[in-house]
Write a structure and sequence with these properties.
Shape: globular
InterPro entries: DUF6415
Strand content: under 5%
Number of domains: 2
Helix content: 55-70%
Largest sheet: 2 strands, antiparallel
Number of helices: 5
Distance between the termini: 26 Å
Pfam families: DUF6415
């Protein structure tokens, strides 16, 4: 079953899409709202159900679509609201991809150049996503495009099994 976790409960990024717009909600693509409600309840109460133990599948197509929109945002008229929405979506995607990237870094030899580059890039991505979005149109565009490139790096690493 395809499962998409909108935003991790510990994340402070608001959800911009989804049927109910709540934080930490699991949405099933097959429309099984009852299972999503049970899983959301388990997250709030700390209980673990068999469905909650399933590994999360990352929706690669949605992430690619968001990256394409973000990188092509400069082709039209700059609207700060659209850039803020793209930034929030990218932050959500980065939050999903950051976990597997950290796990891969933990499995690397901690004295190697590859490990250092990987961790340094992850730390930079985390600092960037923690910053508040800029209210200026051009600065917001640059931030969104940089986050799109970071998200693309995370997605490429996820696809390749972190090399």
């Amino acid at each position: 079953m395809l499962i998409r976790e909108r935003i991790e409960k510990s994340s402070s990024v608001p959800t911009t899409r989804g049927p109910s717009g709540t934080h930490g909600e699991v949405v099933r693509a097959d429309g099984d709202d009852d299972a999503a409600t049970k899983t959301g309840h388990a997250e709030r109460t700390g209980e673990r159900s068999p469905e909650a133990a399933e590994p999360l599948a990352i929706d690669v197509l949605t992430i690619e679509e968001t990256i394409t929109l973000a990188l092509g945002a400069s082709r039209g008229q700059l609207q700060v609201s659209a850039l803020v929405d793209l930034g929030a979506r990218l932050r959500g995607h980065i939050a999903l991809l950051r976990g597997p990237a950290r796990k891969a870094a933990d499995e690397m030899w901690h004295g190697g150049v590859a490990w250092y580059r990987h961790v340094a890039r992850l730390d930079g991505i985390e600092r960037q996503t923690a910053q508040a979005p800029s209210p200026l149109p051009f600065a917001a565009l640059i931030e969104v495009q940089l986050m799109a490139r970071d998200c693309q790096w995370l997605l490429d690493g996820y696809r390749e099994g972190w090399r």
